[in-house]
Write a structure and sequence with these properties.
This protein is mostly beta strands. It contains one helix and eleven strands. The chain has one helix at residues 2-14, and strands at residues 17-34, 37-54, 58-72, 77-91, 94-109, 113-121, 124-130, 133-150, 168-179, 182-193, 196-207. Strands 1, 2, 3, 4, 5, 6, 7, 8, 9, 10 and 11 form an eleven-stranded antiparallel beta sheet that branches. The longest helix has 13 residues, at 2-14. The N and C termini lie far apart (39 Å).
């Protein structure tokens, strides 16, 4: 049994790697609920980087990319830059990946919070490719680091805290269809903070990365 495992690992290690650029415009709507107030805005941005995976049925895959998104058209302001890498095993149409994003976020929530802070997001993602469709589920905690400017950022406390891990928590579900290098995706996400819940629903346009990259930002 051990010999079989080592043989599979050695075969995977010797497999060639395929790489493709990540070029992903982001267009979505954002709904933020803070106490009794609800804010609706447009969210636009983009992701740029490199995705890589081993040839063959089994092996490993990963990606390194930067993402910028910003809200428009609402009293609630949001701007985010994140950069990170993710890596994991693949077996046929199923991919599992873990990793971390370093994030710099700026929020303006009327009468609640106005500031800029840094954080680390550590999601776990499960991805499945079926013919021309790709589906993804993602969940993970966010750990606050430093308040850069404005109000001191605090994390979720008490009964509203997920699994007792992290200061905030985010999860998402996405799907896309496409042929060749072009694809159209639909995604929903939710981020729980001490100041309210940030929900996003929107379209993603994907270029040059079909079958290689995660759907999440």
């Amino acid at each position: 049994m051990n010999f079989l495992f080592l043989s599979l690992f050695a075969s995977s290690a010797m497999a060639e790697w395929e790489t493709k650029p990540i070029i992903k415009p982001i267009i979505s709507s954002s709904v933020y609920q803070a106490e009794e107030d609800i804010y609706v805005a447009a969210k636009v941005g983009g992701a740029f980087g490199l995705a890589y995976r081993q040839d063959g049925l089994a092996g490993f895959h990963g990606r390194t990319r930067g993402v910028y998104t910003q809200n428009f058209g609402s009293e609630l302001g949001f701007r985010e830059f994140r950069v990170g890498s993710f890596f994991g095993p693949k077996l046929g149409p199923i991919d599992l990946e873990i990793g971390a994003d370093y994030m710099v976020d700026t929020y303006v929530v009327p009468n609640l919070y106005n500031g800029q802070f840094s954080a680390v997001s550590t999601p776990v993602r499960l991805l499945a490719d079926v013919w021309i469709m790709r589906v993804e589920l993602s969940a993970g905690p966010i750990f606050l680091l430093n308040t850069i400017d404005g109000d001191q950022r605090v994390g979720v406390k008490g009964a509203n805290r997920f699994w007792g891990v992290g200061d905030e928590f985010a999860y998402s579900a996405s799907a896309r269809v496409g042929l060749g290098p072009l694809a159209l995706g639909l995604g929903v996400s939710q981020r729980h903070t001490a100041y309210g819940t940030d929900n996003s629903v929107g379209l993603q346009f994907l270029i040059l990365n079909f079958g290689m990259d995660s759907l999440s930002y």
